[in-house]
Write a structure and sequence with these properties.
Helix Hairpins; about 5% strand; about 60% helix; mainly alpha
Length: about 230
């Protein structure tokens, strides 16, 4: 059973989720987009102001041409990129790329519906199967991300991964950055789990105390001595 915040806070400390929270998130998203757009056009503005060499000009993309060797997406798309590369050319008469996109759609749908399915157990600590499933998803995502971002080279017209020893000597900073990011991610998750456990424990203790108060019988009134009695 989820915690009842109306009993933990005063009415003046609460506010409706709709539309207050939606308006706040909308403003945050618009401010973030404004900052991104500013940095996107900043080189062009600097060029217009006379600071030459800021804008990086390249040949226009050819949508009908083959993807050049070594071109990879941004890091947050590497897992999806590598997952699509692992798909077979044809499976049961369906194109491998189509199958990869559809299977990812199923995964996204599960993630969207998961909070609604897990809502009844929101005040309980996750069980072992749930923890194992989340751990497997996180490890799989990290593995595909590192695999998709690994450098490749052409050998007889075929792309092959660069050996670890050679890659380490070429770019040691990449592995140090990945290690630091994983450690920071683990510390953040550990701290968040501690905070969530504290909230759940407080809610369970509050519910248990309330049930105990309701279970206790009302105290009988103390008889008063009649006037004149000592």
């Amino acid at each position: 059973m989820a915690a009842d915040y109306t009993k933990q806070y005063r009415p003046d400390q609460l506010e409706p989720f709709w539309p207050n929270e939606i308006v706040k998130m909308t403003v945050a998203v618009l401010c973030t987009l404004a900052v991104i757009m500013f940095f996107a056009i900043l080189p062009v503005l600097l060029e217009a102001l006379g600071f030459h060499g800021m804008a990086h000009e390249e040949q226009p993309a050819n949508p009908r041409g083959a993807t050049p060797t070594g071109i990879k997406p941004e890091w947050y798309f590497l897992a999806v990129y590598q997952y699509l590369r692992l798909m077979p050319t044809q499976l049961l008469g369906i194109s491998g790329k189509t199958l990869g996109v559809l299977s990812q759609g199923v995964g996204v749908t599960i993630l969207i519906l998961l909070p609604f399915w897990y809502r009844k157990r929101s005040a309980q600590r996750p069980r072992l199967p749930y923890r194992l499933a989340v751990t497997a998803v996180v490890i799989g995502f990290l593995t595909l991300t590192i695999w998709g971002g690994w450098h490749e080279r052409l050998v007889d017209g075929d792309e092959q991964l660069v050996p670890f020893s050679e890659y380490w000597h070429e770019q040691p900073l990449t592995f140090l950055t990945i290690g630091a990011a994983l450690v920071a991610f683990y510390l953040l998750v550990w701290q968040e789990r501690r905070a969530i456990r504290a909230v759940l424990d407080d809610a369970q203790e509050g519910e248990a105390a309330a049930e105990q108060r309701l279970a206790l019988p009302e105290s009988a009134p103390v008889p008063h001595a009649a006037e004149g009695e000592h």
